[in-house]
Design a protein that fits this description.
The structure is a homodimer. Chain A has 8 helices and 34 strands. With about 525 residues, chain A is of the alpha/beta class. The longest helix of chain A is centred in the middle third of the chain and has 16 residues, at about 205-220. The interface of A and B includes residues 310, 336 and 431 of A.
Amino acid sequence: MRKKALIATLLFLPVWASPRATDLSVEKWGIFELTMKGPGTGNPFAGIDLSARFTDGERTFEPDGFYDGDGLFKIRFMPDREGSWSYKTISNRKELDGKEGNFTCTPPSPGNHGPVRVRNRFHFEYQDGTPYFPFGTTIYEWVFQSGETRRQTLETLKSSPFNKARFLLVPPYKEKYLSGPLKLDKFPFVGSSTDDFDFSRFNIEYFRHFEQCLQQILELGIEADVILFRPYDGEKWGFDRMDAETNDRFTRYAVARLAAYRNVWWSMANENSFMRYLTEKDWDRLFQIVEEKDPYGHMLSIHNADLIYDYTKPWVTHVSFQYYNAVRAFGAAAMVREIYRKPVIHDEINYEGNIASRWGQLSGEEMVFRFWLAFIGGTYATHGEAFVDPSDIDWISEGGVLHGESPPRIAFLRKIVESGPQAGLEPIDYHYTRNIAGKAGSYYLFYFGKEKGGNWNFELPARELEEGMKFRAELIDTWNMTITPLRETFEVEKSNRYLFTDKKKQSVQLPEKPFMAMRITRID
Amino acid sequence: MRKKALIATLLFLPVWASPRATDLSVEKWGIFELTMKGPGTGNPFAGIDLSARFTDGERTFEPDGFYDGDGLFKIRFMPDREGSWSYKTISNRKELDGKEGNFTCTPPSPGNHGPVRVRNRFHFEYQDGTPYFPFGTTIYEWVFQSGETRRQTLETLKSSPFNKARFLLVPPYKEKYLSGPLKLDKFPFVGSSTDDFDFSRFNIEYFRHFEQCLQQILELGIEADVILFRPYDGEKWGFDRMDAETNDRFTRYAVARLAAYRNVWWSMANENSFMRYLTEKDWDRLFQIVEEKDPYGHMLSIHNADLIYDYTKPWVTHVSFQYYNAVRAFGAAAMVREIYRKPVIHDEINYEGNIASRWGQLSGEEMVFRFWLAFIGGTYATHGEAFVDPSDIDWISEGGVLHGESPPRIAFLRKIVESGPQAGLEPIDYHYTRNIAGKAGSYYLFYFGKEKGGNWNFELPARELEEGMKFRAELIDTWNMTITPLRETFEVEKSNRYLFTDKKKQSVQLPEKPFMAMRITRID
């Protein structure tokens, strides 16, 4: 039933008559879908232009349509304002051109906050204004797994701290996908793993399955960081070295089918520079196709490998970064966001695990440490884990269940972040003091990282402070997940031009263990 | 005499006749200067276009000329190839147009290696192929000081480790430059500190004085990072808020006068974003003027303040960075160069000193530590110092003498760098092991920073290694400036896919003090 509310399908079949179903309604940021019978002969994926102009009288959106098999063409639209909308199709084929109609956009259902966009330069919000703090995870191949594994993945996600998931639109080449229980029977293109693919025709069933997964993720309130291209082809299937025309058509088709899902983020590629057949100009062009064809301006980025894509380019909405050292020492994460002046998500910071490859050997402590460093730098991080598992199922690849120690601590961090400044954690005085984030004057989160013990003097950077302001403090054990309010309160006075200190010069004895933090909140 | 060899002046006076002095010669990368009588009425700084085409038969350079007072116009040219050159002037004024001549370019004198350019993407070399490893210092206002202070500055530089100096083309507003012994009598523009400036006319004497200083620096073998604009105006003189036409003319005039000095680097501004009257588009335009007008492609960058200029832009040759945290922790410096894919010079990393402002409070140890972090990250750093001095003379501002403890240690580092890989120190395996730079397979510089003591296992990243290779090791005390060869030699064997270790599993006991390094060199 829930799905029905989200996707309203308007089917014109077999012959266009007068606009029907004008009472059809769809919720705000749901999907309105128009279906039309069109030319079924030849190659309907090529040479047929189709779009529709949707307007609420003030603004106009023009999503592309797409061929959905059986002679049917569809156009999907995500209305972003309640009330009456009308549309009219545009096509170079008579039977698809000039179709008109209306529908009503109803209030969003609970939990539907719309798509995510940038807020306050370095942060995010849903379109309804609700802050969105990404706590992502990585499940690259989950959509290609058995129904059972997929169900398990969704179950795991449901009780996890993760509200963003990165996964591939195109399967990677792996032996296990060629035969046995995981043999893939569907690919983005018509053909099979043993035949040649027909890159001019898309496999409808493949995309429908992907959309079903996308919808399941959406229903869990999780943003989907959909990865359009990937290098992992082992020189086999050719998905990493299709010609420009095919790449462009694939990109347009993906956008036409998926853009109306409000939880979609576009990740142009995973480890893009490992796709040696594509140049930076190719990536620019593919970015621009998405930018032009996506009517809603979904989040749009690319995940780098050895050559860092130029994230300053105007079509990049945020930095989807793979650079471990950006979250291994204080001060680096904030620098990245300042260089790009965009939100930064450290989308690969190595994985918690114990596999032979060192990118999958983080301890839980180190994973959580890196998460904290990301947040203290005013940026965001994405989780992944890779444990040697007898079933050969890795969370980062297949999904399934989580084995690591970091997820509960990431959930703990998420609670702290979400109950903190709604504008997002901002690094404070970070060119000198690198371990404070919050909101100057009212909220300070100090993170002590791997340092143990010591006496911490109550001392705050001067900005936004006035003498006499009072604060309370809580000692946070980020690993053991405890928050201990201190009995003392603190009243600040100016110590020098840079610092305010407690009037009574009170200090706090930190326990002899790492990963402690201090939360200072203004009370008066 | 030395100067004469560097600048060959060809004077056409008072009337153009036939080309004279065809036997005139100038050394390679010296300055050929052509002087012509031109219109002296009206404002000769405006409305007169003048340039000359210089060619050696293969390539052509077209530097702009400039008005040099007394009705004289000059064109300066820096030939970069030995042999015969000819030229012909181009002007919208008849008396300056179509003048032709020849001269001979002779071999460069000792110590003249030509201008600096980028080498190996992240490093530098002189145009004759000699590697150039910048070890810069900062003497912003030295050209505006008394002759005695300037002589002292030059003396200090002569015995310092510094081979690059950053200084201002435009004086900052300071009370002491208004009256008393340091009262400035010359400004870039006609006028004085108490009158209004005539921004349409340049002060010839001012520029000649600046050129003299530039020449003195050149004769010491020091690159001059000439800063064209600066924010430090206290709302007084107006040099930070001239209109676009004036800024453009000033930039063109500076390039016309100074580009033929081989040691010039262009720094568009110091702390550019503090110049609130200029937008990023303004900076782009000014950059493009320099790029277009400088025939030699001198090094060209800008020094950022709170908003980091987009150093990915094509006209930026290298990153002139002010971001202290980039050199306070392992791993950050290498990230900066990877983001920009250009050489990075950390041109402001705080200053060694004891002044009230915390940007001038580094200990000598911390300054040297930051230098090492820059170099271990495959980047470069610039020194500065600011000590409270009874004479009110600060090295970073006025020059004079050095008081700090870092310069000898920077000299020590320079010797290590210059005797290391000539292609420049490259970080090795830095995404995992952040403290090694050198050349994989033959040279490894490990830096232990603030860590003290411990047992260091002989362990090298696998790249370029083969079993049986032999190495020697030297323990370096970067603070006490000692290099102690270890008696052991080490033969490597493969330990795992990432590491080679010593066959005998030898380790090295590090002393219980910080700032140690280890140099590992292949012997067999």
